[in-house]
Amino acid sequence: MAGRLQRIVLAVEIIDGFLIYIALQHGMIGVSGVLLTVAAAGFFLVILMQWERKNG
Amino acid sequence: MADPLPLNLATWLLALSPVIGVLILMVVFRWGASQAGAAAWFAAVIVGVVVFRATIPVLGYAQTKAVLLSLDVLYIIWMALLFFHVADEAGAVAIIGRRLPALTSDKVMQALLLSWVFVSFLQGMGGFGVPVAVVAPLLVGIGFSALESVVMASLGHGWAVTFGSLGTSFAALLATTGQTADALAPESALLLGLAAFACGALVAYMAAKLRGVVRALPALLVIGTVMAATQYLLATNGLWNLGATGASLVGLGVAVGVARLPFYQREPASLPAGQSDEGPSLPIALSAYVVLVVLIAMINLVPPVERLFDTVVLSLAFPAVETARGWVTPAGSGRAISLFGHPGAILLYASLVAYIIYRQAGCYQEGAVKRITTKVLNGAVKSSLGIVAMVGMATIMGHAGMTTLIARGLSETVGAGIYPAAAPFVGALGAFMTGSNTNSNVVFGALQMQTAELLGLSISLILAAQTTGGALGSVLAPAKVIVGCSTVGLAGEEGPVIGRMLVLGLIPVALTAIVVWILA
Questions:
Q1: Which residues from chain A sit within 8 angstroms of residue B384, using beta carbons?
Q2: How high is the pLDDT of residue B278?
Q3: Are strands B337-338 and B313-314 parallel, antiparallel or unpaired?
Q4: Residue B391 — φ and ψ, nearest 5°?
Q5: Of A10, A13, A24, which is closest to B61 when you measure between CB atoms?
Q6: B388 touches chain A (CB under 8 A)
Q7: Do residues B490 and B479 lie in contact, with contact meaning Cβ atoms separated by under 8 Å?
Q8: CA-based angle B32:B37:B39, to the nearest 5?
Q9: What's the whole-number average pLDDT of chain B?
Q10: Which of B90, B223, B360, B431 could form a disulfide with B440 if both were Cys (CB 3.0 to 4.6 A apart)?
């Protein structure tokens, strides 16, 4: 489960990085802000997984 | 309006906080690289926005650059793992490891063959903690204690880490500093080549104390010179991906000859007790590595072939961005990735050819493809997320002006006279904490470069010191030691192993520091 989630987060981070670039190239600062939040959410999930593993 | 942040202890520590965070989370709290990297990414974003006033475009472009840089490194890591498991599943790694110690009855020479030359060859092809996991049990099999085995296998391959794993760590250094391979390869290969002698001497010392070093001297000089020179020649002639692989492959050939010298043949040599000779023949086992070497050489050295494979390149142009404090990151193109000519792509071709060879030779048992896929996926994802997060942290720090502030602080307090000697220890510390030369180069590469610039030191020399220190420090990392210990029944007793390793492992780092200080 954790491995699958990590794979999904990895894919999201990579795709999200390119979407941020497209949004910024088109001057869509707000959209890129949202996409940065998506990247943050992915990393937050990774930290949560660590927390769950340590604390059951 | 420009409002630059003043340099004082508080701002310096704030700028450094993401790096300190990674180190504390990994060492004190034993978090994995991906989790610690993710937390450090948050720290970089928060400090970047609140203190250094990074804007959304600054963070956004930094994140895109981080993804590009990560892909450049991950392409190699994923495919190197695939290549290793294709060979390992066929029994190729095991057969090479079993045949080598049977060449000589001399204990010291056996130790050198396995835990200096063969372990470095494994590092060249795969890395990621695998070399120690494969070699340590083989050393136990020929009579060394479990502790000696882990320490020898770990210390013996430090010199091969930067140009090993198909040059992943070196690629990361190039990616994060924007330097070219031509600029960094000569001094890096020189320092790592010198470290090769120290690594071999440490293995001999572990095998039979000072008597072992004396006995190993002819082998150390001959094999060490051959490996150091081969690595230097490959790295400085556009084949840095093959630096450690080629060096250890040539080293293996020479070592086989040296091991057969009468000096190292007191008693008739034979296969170690309890080990069978089942598996593919040696030429078949080695065929995958030959295929890889030929493919890399052909694609990198034959201009028409190189042009053909470099026709599809993924590259993005980035505009200049500025923080609200006026820190400007100039415009430029991000990392260019050649989809079909990349070292990762070459590893993929080699994996496919090797798979066909091994399959034709009947080396695979049923379900091999599934086992290979599972091992690659499990191994790759763990390290990949950590790299994406840490590269993200490093690029955000760079774009927010944090890295420059840290470098200014270092340059003003340490000074040009001492810094060259400190640079390898910075690299070693980063690798010890994060468990990887690649991570150390990502976290400290840009910082070391900017500090060198501010101090008027040679950038290539300081970056060579960074990656050499990182390579030698990575083998001491608890994360790798744990893997090695688990394969020889020392799980839960890593403390004494790390203690022993630190005492010996810091010697080559200190020697590197002296050489860098002299050269600076």
A1: 10
A2: 67
A3: antiparallel
A4: -65, -40
A5: A24
A6: yes
A7: no
A8: 100
A9: 87
A10: B431
Quote the CA–CA distance of B129 and B112 in Å, as a whole number: 19
What is the tens place of the pLDDT at every residue in B207-225? 999 999 999 999 999 999 9
The encoded tokens of residue B25 equal: 């989370």
Give me the torsion for CA of B389, B393, B398, B403, rounded to 10°: -140
What is the Cα–Cα distance from B356 to B360, expressed in whole angstroms? 6
Answer whether B173's CB lies under 8 Å from B441's CB.
Answer: yes
CA–CA distance, B319 with B299 (Å, rounded to integer): 33
Angle in degrees, 0-180, between the axes of helices B146-155 and B130-141, rounded to the nearest 10: 140
Round to whole Å and give the CA distance between A10 and B393. Answer: 15
Task: Report residue B252 CA to chain centroid gap.
Answer: 20
Tokens of B238: 């556009």
Q: What is residue B123's predicted lDDT score, i.e. its pLDDT?
A: 87
Q: Is B194 exposed, middle or buried (0-12, 13-18, 19+ CB in 10 A)?
A: middle
Which residues 37-96 on chain B approach chain A with CB closer than 8 angstroms? 38-39, 41-42, 45, 56-57, 59-61, 63-64, 66-68, 70-71
Q: How far apart are CA B477 and CA B161, in angstroms?
A: 13
Helix (H, G, I), strand (E, B) or coil at B391: helix
Q: Which of B314, B388, B391 to mutate to test the interface with A (most CBs of A within 10 A)?
A: B388
Q: Could you tell me which residues come within 8 angstroms of residue B214 by beta carbon, excluding any fewer than 6 positions away?
A: none
pTM comes to: 0.77
Q: What is the tens place of the pLDDT at every residue in B355-376?
A: 999 999 988 988 999 999 988 8
Straight-line distance from the first to the last Cα atom of chain A, in angstroms, rounded to the nearest whole number: 14
Q: How many residues does chain B have?
A: 520
Q: Where are the alpha helices (DSSP H) in A1-56?
A: 2-25, 29-55
Residue with tokens 């990674």: B22
Residue of chain A whose Cα is closest to the Cα of B31:
A50
Q: Is the pLDDT of residue B511 over 90?
A: yes
| Residue tagged 């400007």 (tokens) | B328
Q: Provide the residue type at B518 as one letter.
A: I
Tokens, residue B281:
């023949």
Instruction: Kindly state the DSSP code that residue A18 receives in the 8-state scheme.
Output: H
Q: Buried (b) or exposed (e) across B47-65, using 16+ Cβ within 10 A? A: bbbebbbbbbbbbbbbbbb
Rounded Cα distance, B341 and B29, in Å: 40
Q: Which two tokens stand for residue B445?
A: 């590469």
Return d(Cα B407, Cα B454) in angstroms, integer: 8
Q: In Å, what is the CA distance from B133 to each residue of B69, B173, B339?
A: 29, 26, 32
In this model, does residue B42 exceed pLDDT 80? Answer: yes
Residue B362 has which token pair? Answer: 């009947």
ipTM: 0.95
DSSP code, position B238: T
User: Is the predicted pLDDT of residue B502 greater than 90, yes or no?
Assistant: no
- Helical axes A2-25 vs A29-55, angle rounded to 10°: 160
